[in-house]
Structures are given as structure tokens and as C-alpha cells.
Design goal:
The protein is mostly helical. It has three domains: about 240 residues, no CATH class; about 90 residues, no CATH class; about 40 residues, no CATH class. It is about 60% helix and about 5% strand. The chain contains 20 helices and five strands. Strands 1-2-3 form a three-stranded antiparallel β-sheet, with no helix packed on it. It has a two-stranded antiparallel sheet with strand order 4-5. A hairpin with a 2-residue loop joins strand 2 and strand 3. Helix 2 packs parallel to helix 5 and helix 4 packs across helix 17. The longest helix is centred in the middle third of the chain and has 28 residues. The radius of gyration is 24 Å and the shape is globular. About 0% of the residues have low confidence. It comes from Setophaga kirtlandii (Kirtland's warbler).
Length: about 425
């Protein structure tokens, strides 16, 4: 995005009311978030995300994004189940609802991109408590996952419009896994900047949520890794892939996020002063010693300090935490939304069926055109990690159909060979 357009999109971000979710104004805001999200990814890959970071900080938009995140999460758990039970709910309503689910993924992805910077963490102010709570809920879902089979991924979802509320529920479960992995990265970045957090944030992470023990659970069960048909599969870069035997001990980025968060939370003097090293917590933390192999430490040398700390913890009883916090802040966004709308979930659902989730044919066409502009092929290709492959022979492709711009070929010969099969789809796309 040009700097002026990026600033205009950031300035346009604003808090949404729960009943407006899915409406036309809210859909426009989703487009703004999605464009900023794609801009952030491309800028970060080029090492040029400083402009977006400065815009979000100077216009104080991080609390707004956190508020949007919490609103969508509450909508999913409180309003969506009521919506599915209403007789007026039609299958075509899934068209805008899909965006509600995607909106949460876009926001957490944008936050993952920018929270690497300390000034972003500072600009979150009191909303950081809501974000910590949000990440805790997502990590709890991750820890509770079955590790006997891999989760589905967004790449495996059907491309056709979803047909029923039950299929939308399945869609939500699939996306929840990928969103939770993004939340893990955001939490790790938050722990990188402990000195920039409000006083209550550290207490909330250590004692209210006991994040060290939750992270131990993730190390132990590793929900992004599983065995299937005798082969080890790991989730990385949005897909599950089989790991060859010689790379099975290699640390993934997700493994690294967990270990770095543990290092930040356990080795900081302030954290050691506030954390309760009681019998249960101590026994859970000592489980980490079994995972601290020489191979792992070679990949992340900082874990030597963790190994030394756990050896010390095994033979000592640390002093009880010093209770020096008399007043504790509580997260305001979650509580405010629940109190404001308590008992009104059905009324909100009925309002949304009437005003947001019963689009006319013309509204559907208009929204489809807007999305086609937002999710342009050129932009999506820039975000893709792999080079395009020829549709016929599978070789790396440098040309594509000039009419529909949807199929790639390595040469003119392959394109001509594929034309009879491609022609019906090409006519439709064009």
C-alpha cells in the first residue's frame, strides 16, 4: 500500500458494536483489516514494517484491534449458536458469516506481525490484559487438543460456498487451530517485553493463568506434531507435512515460541519473585528436564540457562512470592461486552438475521466484487511461500493464462495442450 492509503486505512479502524457484526459497515472494516494484514506481511518480509508500526502506535489503534478480537470471540460463542437455531436463518447466510470467522484470523495475524516491536506492546496499554486473557484461552484449547490425528487446515476446506450452519461450525473448528497458533506467537512477543507491561499483566500471566504450567503442557503434548501411519507429521507454514527421519529432532518455529516464552517467564528476576513455586508448579516445571537434550540445546543455546535453573529448582524450595500488589487491574473489554449484552443474545441474533445475514442477490454481487478487489491474485501470489507450478507438467511456471489469469504454465506448448480442459473454467472466470 502507498503510505497515504495505509494511513487512511489505519485511521478508519474503529470499535464495532456486537449487533453490527456482519453488516455493511463492519464488512468494510474487515476489508481495511485484511488489506493492512497483507500489507504488514509483505512489509515484514522485506524488513519495512516500521511505517505500519508507527501508524498503529500514533493513532492508538492497538486497543481497537484487541477490542475487535474480543467482540468476534464473544459473538462466536454467544450469538452464533443462537443464530443457528433461528428458523429465519438461511443457508445463503453463511456467505457473510464466513467473513466473521476470517476476521478474527486476520486480526490475530496482523497483531502477530507487529507485536514483535516493543512500542506496539506499550501502545496496547490496559487492553494488553484482554489480549493476555485471549491468548490464554487459545492456548488452553491447544493444550486440550487430541494428538492422535492432525487437525484439518484451511487449505483442506471446500472451495464451494458452505451449505449449512453445521458446516460453518466445522469451519470454525478448523480455523480455531490456526488462530490458536498465531495467539501463541503473540503471547511469546508479549513476554519479550515484560518491562513494558502494566503492573497487573505479569501477575495475571504467572498466577491468575499460570502460563508456565500451560506452556509445559504444550511442550509435553505438542499439538502441532503427531504420528500417523507410522510417520511423524508436523504443522508448519499453514500445512501438515511428513518429517523425514533425519529431521525429526529439528526444532520447529512453534517449538521455539514455546521455549522462548518459558525462558522469558521463568528466568526473569521479576518473574521469579512473583511466581508461586509450590509443589504442583515445581513438579510440572521439572518435567521440562526430560526434553532438554543436547540436540535441542544446540539449536537454542539459551536453554543452557533453563537447564541450570531447573537443576537448582530440583534441590531447593524458592521463597514464597512477595505480595506487593494491593489493587489489581482487570480486563475491561471482555467484561464490558458481556455486561452490556447479557440476556440480549437472541435479540442480537434476530437483528443480524434481518439486517446483516439475509443479503439480496444484488448485495451478494456487490460484496463479491469488493472482495475480488481486496483478494487480488497478484497480492495473493506475493504472499504465497512457493513458486507457481505448471498445470500440465509440474515444472516451475513463469507464464499464465492472460484471459482468466488463474492457471500457470511453463511454456506455450503446455498451455495449448491443456486448453480444451481449461476452456470451460476460463470462460467462467473471464
Amino acid at each position: 500500500l502507498p503510505p497515504a492509503e495505509a494511513e487512511a486505512l489505519v485511521r478508519a479502524l474503529q470499535a464495532s458494536e456486537l449487533r453490527d457484526i456482519g453488516g455493511q459497515g463492519w464488512l468494510r472494516q474487515h476489508e481495511y483489516v485484511e488489506k493492512l494484514n497483507m500489507h504488514g506481511i509483505l512489509s515484514a518480509s522485506a524488513g519495512q514494517e516500521q511505517l505500519l508500526t508507527e501508524l498503529l502506535v500514533s493513532h492508538a489503534k492497538i486497543p481497537v484491534l484487541v477490542g475487535e478480537l474480543i467482540s468476534v470471540e464473544i459473538w462466536k460463542h454467544k450469538v452464533f449458536p443462537v443464530l443457528c437455531r433461528l428458523q429465519d436463518f438461511k443457508p445463503r447466510s453463511t456467505f457473510p458469516i464466513y467473513v466473521v470467522l476470517h476476521h478474527e484470523a486476520s486480526i490475530i495475524n496482523l497483531l502477530e506481525t507487529v507485536f514483535f516491536h516493543k512500542e506496539i506492546c506499550e501502545s496496547a496499554e490496559d487492553s494488553i490484559l484482554d489480549l493476555i486473557d485471549y491468548c490464554h484461552r487459545k492456548l488452553t484449547l491447544l493444550a486440550a487438543r487430541s494428538t492422535t490425528a492432525p487437525a484439518a487446515t484451511s487449505a483442506e476446506l471446500p472451495a464451494e460456498p458452505l451449505a449449512s450452519p453445521s458446516s460453518m461450525q466445522k469451519q470454525a473448528e478448523v480455523m480455531e487451530f490456526e488462530i490458536s497458533l498465531k495467539a501463541l506467537s503473540v503471547l511469546r512477543f508479549i513476554t519479550d517485553h515484560l518491562d513494558s507491561l502494566p503492573l497487573s499483566a505479569l501477575t495475571r500471566m504467572l498466577n491468575t493463568h499460570n502460563l508456565p504450567c500451560l506452556l509445559v503442557e504444550l511442550v509435553e503434548h505438542c499439538p502441532w506434531s503427531c504420528w500417523e501411519a507410522g510417520k511423524l507429521k508436523k504443522f508448519e507454514n499453514g500445512t501438515w507435512h511428513v518429517v523425514p527421519p533425519e529431521e525429526q529432532l529439528k526444532m520447529t518455529k512453534l517449538d521455539g515460541q514455546v521455549w522462548l516464552a518459558l525462558l522469558n517467564l521463568l528466568l526473569s528476576p521479576e518473574c521469579q519473585r512473583k511466581y508461586r513455586f509450590d509443589g504442583f508448579n515445581k513438579s510440572q516445571l521439572l518435567k521440562l528436564r526430560a526434553f532438554l537434550t543436547d540436540v535441542l540445546i544446540d539449536q537454542l543455546p539459551n536453554l543452557v540457562e533453563m537447564q541450570r535453573f531447573l537443576s537448582y529448582l530440583a534441590v531447593t524450595d524458592p521463597a514464597p512470592p512477595k505480595k506487593d500488589l494491593i489493587l489489581e487491574q482487570v480486563p475491561v473489554v471482555w467484561d464490558h461486552i458481556l455486561k452490556k449484552h447479557s440476556g440480549k443474545w437472541e435479540a442480537i441474533a434476530k437483528h443480524q438475521v434481518k439486517h446483516a445475514f439475509s443479503p439480496t442477490d444484488e448485495e451478494l454481487r456487490l460484496q463479491a466484487r469488493r472482495w475480488a478487489q481486496t483478494y487480488s491474485l497478484d497480492m495473493m501470489e506475493a504472499l504465497a511461500p512457493d513458486k507457481p507450478l505448471c498445470r500440465v507438467c509440474g515444472a516451475e511456471a513463469g507464464k499464465r493464462c492472460s484471459r482468466c489469469r488463474n492457471e500457470w504454465y511453463c511454456s506455450r506448448a503446455c498451455q495449448v495442450q491443456h486448453w480444451q480442459k481449461h476452456k470451460p473454467a476460463c470462460d467462467l472466470m473471464a
